[in-house]
Amino acid sequence: MAKFLQISSSLLTLLVLLTSTAISFSPIAAAAKPKSHDGFSRRLSPATLRLKKEKLSHLRFYFHDIVSGPNPTAVQIVRAPPTANLSSTGFGMLAMIDDPLTAGPKPTSKLVGRAQGIYGSASLNDVGLLMALNFAFVEGKFNGSTLSVMGRNAVMSPVREMPVIGGSGVFRFARGYAQARTRTFNPRTGDAVVEYNVYVFHY
Ligand SMILES: *[C@@H]1O[C@H](CO)[C@@H](O)[C@H](O)[C@H]1NC(C)=O
Ligand SMILES: *[C@@H]1O[C@H](CO)[C@@H](O)[C@H](O)[C@H]1NC(C)=O
């Protein structure tokens, strides 16, 4: 018991040390304190964050929505009774996804990222999804950066457009739009491959 206490007290010391180190090295603590009258905000010149010219990028990749088989990347998490099974549009359904994004349309093509998030059937009268996704990139200069998409996806339309509402890493301050076009859809399994063209301003 005593030994256990001794171990847990040294663990505690270690934890305290780690936490205080983390705090003293955190970028927030390191940044200058705001000097405005409210004590928590300040005006910055964009040069402070080394923001130069805004860039426009076009990304094209293929989104693999795999709902069938032993390793689905899109799983239904909610199907609201009784609406979902009475509604021809699946209204009330929610799915969580971690879909691979590849450079080419084949599933074996190079992985460039993953689409992680939620889509749900948000339309009573047609098939319209609410998409709330992060594209998490793993390739090249975009590795580790993300883009956030929030929009309406009328999946039966040939082209659907969704706003890109932000991003992280190289995509800080991102804004733009994504266009989705279904390339293949297997009505038997429900699996789909969707081409995405993303146009985004970022620094
Ligand atoms: C809809 O689903 C609920 C829950 O599974 C079930 O109780 C109900 O009978 C279903 N209704 C129809 C019309 O299939
Ligand atoms: C992407 O970044 C991760 C983490 O830093 C690294 O492990 C991985 O090798 C990188 N991938 C590529 C393709 O550069």
Automatic annotation (TrEMBL):
Residues 1-24 form the signal peptide. Its main location: secreted. Keywords: Apoplast, Secreted, Signal. GO terms for cellular component: apoplast. GO terms for biological process: phenylpropanoid biosynthetic process. It is found in: Secreted, Extracellular space, Apoplast. It holds the Pfam family Dirigent. Belongs to the plant dirigent protein family. Homodimer. Dirigent proteins impart stereoselectivity on the phenoxy radical-coupling reaction, yielding optically active lignans from two molecules of coniferyl alcohol in the biosynthesis of lignans, flavonolignans, and alkaloids and thus plays a central role in plant secondary metabolism. This is Dirigent protein.
